[in-house]
């Protein structure tokens, strides 16, 4: 088992974010975490990455307790950081280097790899993500989508076995989005464990083996095989992942449940 989340609660100073969440993430699966704005997806991913810790309940990673205390142990912390990579929702919070090259080389360098290997990994990752033309640019000058790709590259260069993606397709153009979806599928085929937080039902349908739904009350609203959960209109309506909104048909405006999965991308 990669993660065991047991009755977890999280409260920020002035807001509840997670309430009684229990779930497991198994090795090699691609799990999508769905939930409306503010339901707690990013909070949960930060917790899986050991950046924040439950205010109630507990989390295990790779069979060991994941706590502030545990991560103070340098051996545990190093091995955990090597095994788990996190691509933030907000790339600005992730990027800090002077150039794109340095940003991507940072992880491999800190793994203690020999210089030739650092060079090779950084070059290969730049190539795979089509970022060669940006290699000398400062990350903070890039566009939102370019930043996202650099953040992704900096995590992939470490080669973690578990990848946490927070809204990975937000702000990407269609070509880059479909590239990313293919990349996620390839990573899954390569045996990586992937947890992706999103509100994009189409992305979920493309990449998820299993879907976990967080409700606006910060509790677990549903969990199961992707096809079953994504076909459960009642659940998706309750969790505010699909919505009623007005449509004009022949000049008559009316409301009906509306799914971004089918309606925005298919018929209608
Ligand atoms: N740093 C913070 N301080 C205080 N409250 C916070 C903080 N970060 C998040 N929250 C609150 O915690 C709740 C969960 O937020 P979180 O960012 O985890 O939601 P989310 O599901 O990722 O939403 P989104 O889809 O908008 O990214 C929200 O009510 C939010 O207002
Ligand atoms: Mg979020």
Description:
- With 268 residues, the chain is of the alpha/beta class.
- The chain has one domain (3-243, 253-258): 3-Layer(aba) Sandwich (Rossmann fold), CATH 3.40.50.300.
- 35% of the residues lie in helices and 28% in strands.
- The chain is built from ten helices and twelve strands.
- The strands form three sheets. It has a six-stranded mixed beta sheet, sandwiched between helices.
- Strand 9 and strand 10 form a beta hairpin.
- Helix 4 (100-110) packs across helix 5 and helix 4 (100-110) runs parallel beside helix 6 (144-156).
- The longest helix is centred in the C-terminal third of the chain and has 16 residues, at 174-189.
- Residues 262-268 have low confidence and may be disordered.
- Bound molecules: adenosine-5'-triphosphate (ATP) and magnesium ion.
- Adenosine-5'-triphosphate binds next to strand 2 and helix 1.
Quick structural summary:
Strand 7, helix 7 and strand 8 form a beta-alpha-beta unit. The longest helix is centred in the last third of the chain and has 16 residues, at 174-189.
Give the helices and strands, then pairings:
Elements: E1 3-12, E2 15-25, E3 30-35, H1 41-48, E4 56-61, E5 64-65, H2 68-72, H3 74-83, E6 84-87, H4 100-110, H5 115-128, H6 144-156, E7 162-166, H7 174-189, E8 193-198, H8 201-207, E9 210-214, E10 220-225, H9 226-230, H10 233-238, E11 243-249, E12 252-258
């Amino acid at each position: 088992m990669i993660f065991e989340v047991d009755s977890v609660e999280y409260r920020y100073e002035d807001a509840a974010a997670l309430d009684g969440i229990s779930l497991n993430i198994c090795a090699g699966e691609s799990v999508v975490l769905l939930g409306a704005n503010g339901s707690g997806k990013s909070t949960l991913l930060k917790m899986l990455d050991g950046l924040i810790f439950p205010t109630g309940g507990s989390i295990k990673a790779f069979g060991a307790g994941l706590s502030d205390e545990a991560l103070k142990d340098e051996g545990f912390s190093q091995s955990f950081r090597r095994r788990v990579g996190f691509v933030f929702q907000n790339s600005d919070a992730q990027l800090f280097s002077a150039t794109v090259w340095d940003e991507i080389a940072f992880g491999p360098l800190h793994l203690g790899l020999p210089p030739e290997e650092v060079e090779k990994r950084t070059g290969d990752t730049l190539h795979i993500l089509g970022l060669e033309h940006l290699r000398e640019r400062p990350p903070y000058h890039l566009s939102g989508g370019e930043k996202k790709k650099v953040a992704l590259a900096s995590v992939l260069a470490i080669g973690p076995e578990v990848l946490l993606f927070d809204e990975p397709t937000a702000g990407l153009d269609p070509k880059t989005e479909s590239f990313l979806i293919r990349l996620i599928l390839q990573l899954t085929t390569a045996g990586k464990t992937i947890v992706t937080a999103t509100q994009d039902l189409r992305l979920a349908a493309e990449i998820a083996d299993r879907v976990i739904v967080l409700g606006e009350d910060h509790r677990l609203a549903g969990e199961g095989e992707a096809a079953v959960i994504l076909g459960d209109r009642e659940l998706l309506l309750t969790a505010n992942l699909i919505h009623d909104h007005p449509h004009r048909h022949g000049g008559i405006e009316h409301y009906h449940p509306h799914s971004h999965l089918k309606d925005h991308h298919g018929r209608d």
